[in-house]
Amino acid sequence: MLNRILLIIVLLITGNGSQAQTVFRSVEDVWKYADTHNITIKTINYELKKSGYATKQAYSAMLPQVNATGSYTDNIALQTTLIPGSLVGSAPGTYRTLQFGQQFVYSGGINAQMNILNLQNWYATRIAKETEEMNKDSVAGTRKMVYQQLATQYYSYLLMQEAERLAAETVKVADSVFQSASNKFKEGLVNEANVDVAKLNMERAQQTQITAHYQMQVAGNNLKALLGLALKDPMEIVAKLTDDMKEDGAGTFKEDPSLRLALWRTKINLIQYKQANSTFVPTVNILYNYATQRSDKTFEPFDGARGVAGWFPSQYWSLQASWPLFTSGNRYFQSRKNKLSYQESMEQYENVKNLSAINDENIRINYQKATEVLYKTKEVMQLSYENYRHVANRYEAGITPIDDRLNAFRDYLDYQNQYLNSLSDMLIQLYQIKIRQQAF
């Protein structure tokens, strides 16, 4: 019974550990995780939500504006006024002092106003709506940029993993060459220069292995930073380079977010041009006002039951039209400026559309070139290694000198570096293809 309990505890611990481990099997897994964890994507999504509220705010400006007012006044000392005595039955030529008004005054009212014709507000709502739609494509553009950053680090990790693997194999071969040269030197069969070259080749291979090992760690840390992970958070990339290199270079590309952004800017500039022209059109408002007031000598707010003082209401409604006839040419020149902005954005959109098509074609060409070059450099590297093996066997048989073996191994190191450079170039073109096939 105790053993079963311990087994359950172990399973729970290992199960929790596996859940805490962040595992990626492809670059698509990395992108999917970043959509909800990358800080740049999260920030731009907040901005999108703000633009949604801005749209609602613009529409709310077209609703009626209703205000309620209320006031209470305590006339502590009423103003004294001199009046001719003849007005109140006194002797002519005399004056009386009177105080007009009540000590306490209460008033309240409601005021409503609504725009019947205001094209500027109407265009403002359209601009806000189009801006919100543009911000959606701005989110797409930001995601594309983040995807490129993630792919760079992800494939750098896999590239350095492959470089370390090749370097580890090369170090073993280089070490065997060095040991053989050292033994032959002790026997007096080779000179010290040959031993130095063999050691140089071994050191060179070890340097490549060390560099790849630490660069792989750096790429992993950079990937964590982009994914919102802490340094101590466990992360594992279980994909192999060969598993993640399968892509159809002739696949369909999705519409580029930068092209959609350029189109939205054109639409917004057109609306702004129309909005500038709308300033020449009059605005019409409808107003309604209701007000009431009560005065009393005693402090009796809202007490009308005893008839001490009554409320005196008033109300009215009106139509107001406003038509600015002359504003020093400000409206005219603003309209001209907005028209130029619209024309400029149209030309920029056409330019972006042409560039997008050219860039897409270049991506396909570069990817095709990179894959073909990679195939050749890998083939050359393998042939170089086979050539080294043949030369090594001839050396062991005493047919060829050690210089030939050392030169053959050095050539293999050079071709290996060419292969890694070609692999790096191909991976760059690969993730460009993958990104252009994503629907943002």
Stated plainly, the CATH topology is called Outer membrane efflux proteins (OEP)
Low-confidence stretches: 5-19
Strand order of the largest sheet: 2-5-7-8
CATH architectural category: Up-down Bundle
Straight-line distance between termini: 55 Å
Number of domains: 1
What does the main sheet amount to? 4 strands, antiparallel
> How many helical stretches?
8
The dominant shape is elongated
Gyration radius from CA atoms, angstroms: 42 Å
Strand/helix succession? HEHHEEEEHHEHEEHH
Query: In CATH's first tier, which class applies?
Result: Mainly Alpha
Describe the protein in words.
The chain has helices at residues 2-20, 27-37, 39-60, 119-186, 192-226, 257-277, 330-396, 402-436, and strands at 22-24, 65-74, 80-84, 95-99, 104-117, 235-237, 283-296, 312-322. It has 8 helices and 8 strands; from the N terminus they run αβααββββααβαββαα. By secondary structure, it is an alpha+beta fold. The chain has a single domain, classed as Up-down Bundle (Outer membrane efflux proteins (OEP)). Helices cover 63% and strands 15% of the residues. Strands 2-5-7-8 form a 4-stranded antiparallel beta sheet, with no helix packed on it.
